[in-house]
Amino acid sequence: MLSHIRLTTALALGSVLSCSLPTQAHADSLWDSARNEVQHIWDNGTLDAYLPLNTYHMRWAYTQEKIAEFNENPWGFGLGRSLRDDKDNWHALYAMAFLDSHKKVEPIVGYAYTHPFARAGEWRAEIGYTAFITSRTDTLHSFPFPGVLPLVGISYGKFTINSTYIPGGKGNGNVLFTFAHYNF
């Protein structure tokens, strides 16, 4: 299971990094960098636990009837490995499963990166991104697909609350997903 997560995460990260590359040699170099990053986090990182907290559907994008149908309590759990580099940037590999907006289980594996842009003592405000592979019953008939989303967080010591925004149009997407993670 863990080797499957490592492989899937490496593929997700490699796919994201290899988009629109000019040469095969450059693609190979980026693929090697992604693989080395995954290996470094796996070998040197420590255990993280993830807890989904909230799925907020932007009220302007949906009718009240649709909002009433949605699940905004994404019960679930996840595990990962992460580390902070010498610049206090956070690098993480994670696997999580939670209830999506339709109360269906959504698995996700990926890589996350944040950079602190403000600090006060043990408090950090961070910004970054996540590259992942997920599967949803209402998207591509549960066929796994990759994605990249922005990530913001507020950390205190080893505890962080992160949010990401899933863009969309009227009646789709436009969701703010919030989760917590603790680094052991």
TrEMBL record:
<comment type="similarity">
    <text>Belongs to the lipid A palmitoyltransferase family.</text>
</comment>
<keyword id="KW-0732">Signal</keyword>
<keyword id="KW-0998">Cell outer membrane</keyword>
<dbReference type="Pfam" id="PF07017">
    <property type="entry name" value="PagP"/>
</dbReference>
<keyword id="KW-0012">Acyltransferase</keyword>
<keyword id="KW-0472">Membrane</keyword>
<dbReference type="GO" id="GO:0009279">
    <property type="term" value="C:cell outer membrane"/>
</dbReference>
<dbReference type="InterPro" id="IPR011250">
    <property type="entry name" value="OMP/PagP_B-barrel"/>
</dbReference>
<feature type="signal peptide">
    <location>
        <begin position="1"/>
        <end position="27"/>
    </location>
</feature>
<dbReference type="GO" id="GO:0016746">
    <property type="term" value="F:acyltransferase activity"/>
</dbReference>
<keyword id="KW-0808">Transferase</keyword>
<protein>
    <submittedName>
        <fullName>Lipid IV(A) palmitoyltransferase PagP</fullName>
        <ecNumber>2.3.1.251</ecNumber>
    </submittedName>
</protein>
<dbReference type="InterPro" id="IPR009746">
    <property type="entry name" value="LipidA_acyl_PagP"/>
</dbReference>
